[in-house]
Design a protein that fits this description.
The structure holds 2 protein chains of 2 kinds. By secondary structure, chain A is mainly beta. Chain A has one domain (22-119): OB fold (Dihydrolipoamide Acetyltransferase, E2P), CATH 2.40.50.140. Helix content of chain A is 12%, strand content 37%. In chain A, a hairpin with a 5-residue loop joins strand 5 (104-111) and strand 6 (117-119). Chain B is of the alpha+beta class. Chain B contains 3 helices and 11 strands; from the N terminus they run H-H-E-H-E-E-E-E-E-E-E-E-E-E. Classes of the chains: A mainly beta, B alpha+beta. At the A-B interface, helix 1 and helix 2 of A face strand 1, helix 3 and strand 11 of B.
């Protein structure tokens, strides 16, 4: 099943869903979700992908992560705005991590400083 | 040589030596396309704008509806043949060997071209009507697609391009588009090559069930690469007051391609 999921991500089993993106999502482990306690470093609202840079809490201090999102126009439909995040905001952010183990992932959801949430939150540890 | 003659000779030399500057200000006068009268066609839009009012209501921007192709049964996959099938199988093998990751030969800032660019999930489209043409602006890579509806024929031996050469006509409220000249360096679906004979027909119309859904019935033919024509229906949902967002890939290229063709993540 896991292999199948990867193949599907690579577009091999594609075809049923006409969702071709700017690049393949095979680099992410879309079956896995990680929750990060983080401070926002930068939030870039731009095509082809918006992204968030964060300092995530780690055992020995913090780690810099890069979180890729979908397009601003798609995010706007979920309630995102260019001003939804600003540097220094403390958030919980859920991501599908890079399969390489590098500190990056694909955005799933976020809990904002005011407690409201966007996207798919929950899961991960 | 008299002085005026000298001057004329010097001027002639200058003009001859700088051909580019000699053309400045002299616009090319293209002949009318085949099937278009010298005083007709999309270039003579004035006086025809009122005719657009008879066209259907495609205002707003349109997002591909995820999972909305086909009738819900098993997915239909293009049936490649011969050398094209072999190339696809080789590509699949390579992806499997590379842990499911597709290697790319061009930048992620290079658009997919037709027909895949009409099926992108993340970036919306808009359809603009002007006399004699329909223009499809695509948020993805800020691409522009022109469909000539002024009665012209296809260009003879069109240059192979990402968008191809599209002509269309209205059958009632359905825009019927015929596209040839799509570069054979592009895919017809992920990893699936096609030949220079590739031809796409699209029938684009509002859904009879929901006027906020635009339906694109795509039919792909390729006598060299396809065993039989491949048909897929793409549906787009309307965002009436939405607008396209700028797409400057080179300014935000966080996914460069490394020497082995793998997409990096910055």
């Amino acid at each position: 099943m896991k292999l199948l999921a990867k193949l599907a991500l690579a577009g091999i089993v594609l075809a049923p869903v006409p969702v071709l993106a700017h690049h393949s999502y095979a680099m992410f482990d879309m079956g896995k979700t990680v929750a990060l306690q983080a401070t926002v470093v930068r939030f870039k609202w731009q095509n082809p992908h918006a992204f968030i840079e964060i300092d995530a809490a780690a055992r020995n201090g913090s780690e810099r992560w890069s979180i890729e999102m979908t397009s601003p126009n798609n995010l706007a439909q979920e309630g995102w705005r260019r001003t939804s995040l600003k540097p220094g905001d403390r958030v919980t952010i859920w991501v599908h991590p890079l399969r390489s183990g590098a500190r990056g992932g694909s955005y799933a959801g976020v809990r904002l400083p005011n407690g409201s949430t966007l996207g798919e939150v929950g899961g991960g540890a | 040589m008299t002085r005026p003659l000298l001057r004329a000779a010097a001027l002639a030399l200058l003009v001859a030596a700088v051909p580019a500057s000699a053309q400045l200000g002299a616009a090319t006068q293209s002949p009318p396309p085949e099937g278009v009268a010298p005083d007709g066609g999309a270039g003579h839009a004035k006086g025809h704008y009122h005719e657009l009012d008879a066209l259907p209501d495609w205002g707003g921007i349109w997002f591909v509806q995820a999972g909305a192709s086909g009738g819900g049964a098993a997915p239909l996959i293009p049936k490649l043949k011969g050398e094209y099938l072999e190339r696809y199988q080789a590509w699949r093998g390579e992806v499997a060997a590379n842990d499911g990751v597709t290697r790319r030969t061009r930048s992620n800032c290079s658009p997919p071209g037709m027909p895949r660019i009409m099926r992108l999930g993340q970036y919306p489209y808009e359809f603009l009507f002007t006399p004699g043409r329909v223009t499809i602006n695509q948020e993805a890579w800020m691409q522009t697609r022109t469909i000539w509806t002024d009665g012209r024929a296809h260009k003879e031996d069109p240059d192979p391009t990402f968008m191809g050469d599209s002509i269309g006509h209205w059958e009632g409220d359905t825009l019927v588009v015929d596209t040839i000249g799509i570069s054979d360096e592009l895919d017809l679906d992920t990893g699936m090559p096609h030949s220079a004979q590739f031809r796409l027909t699209e029938r684009i119309h509002l859904s009879p069930d929901d006027p906020d859904v635009l339906v694109n019935e795509m039919r792909m033919e390729d006598p060299e690469a396809l065993e039989e024509p491949f048909e897929v229906t793409v549906r787009y949902r309307r965002d009436r007051h939405g607008s396209l967002i700028e797409f400057q890939c080179a300014e935000n290229d966080r996914n460069p391609i490394d020497e082995e063709g793998n997409t990096e993540f910055l």
